[in-house]
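Below sits our specimen:

——
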Amino acid sequence: MRHPRPPQPPSPERSAELRRRFAEEARSERPDLSALCLLVGAEGDGSLDEAGLGAAQVKLDRLAGELPFRPGTPRAWAEALRDLLGERYGFHGVGADYRRLESSLLHAVLRRRRGLPILLSVVWMEVARRAGAPVYGVALPGHFVVGFGAEPGLAGGSAGGVEERVLVDPFDGGRLLSGDDAEALVAGTTGAAGLTPSMLEPAAPLDVVTRVLNNVRAWAAGRPEQSAVGLWAIELALLLPSHAARLRYERARLLVERGEFLAGAGELEAYAEVVGVVDEAGAERVRGEARVARAMLN
């Protein structure tokens, strides 16, 4: 079966500008999730120009304008989003979406109305937020969903002192989830039994973007011919204020795999200096990799 050709990257000049804006937005006091995800999309798809970025934001605004005015309870909000996005517009996901890079690019998800759970959740969250809904993302292990109601741990509640909270699965068209449903999702993707309170904590915008970039990296990792995609995903992740130090090692390894031996060796040596502070044996192994990379130049 032929798989669709992934979108082509932007020019180096365009990429540099997108990365500058991505880093600036990520370090702002209140990072804008839709803006960050659209900048990821523009880095992955060179056809997404400024007009396209603006059109995607307008589409989110327009969808929010089609919701009923202040539906009321968290359940009513969840049902209104399901009726609008899941039923009227057909936003949902299927297994084949995991094989497409576009499933991780917000502008493409808005156009196709298909995508990975986390990108469909971004659509739900951004439309709901614009309409004034009490909404947040929930990074269940292996499957991202959306919560409506007071965020866990925040003050507030109904007259009875208990605030209703509702989970929905945008990948399944916005299906409302019971506690058993959520447990089944986690068990189905990870094999783990039961939910812990930490699994239901709201996901911050930068955590969502990190997970989106992780998905892009995972997509590229299984396709050696798409190593350039994996590289830009790592490089965007390195622009986030908080990131795993090991990303620098992954970037160095990827450079070597792409035949950029000198640049990769230099990155490996720089990473070894960082690691050597706490793990000299590990640092020496990385230096050995750098020596091997440099030898490939001969």
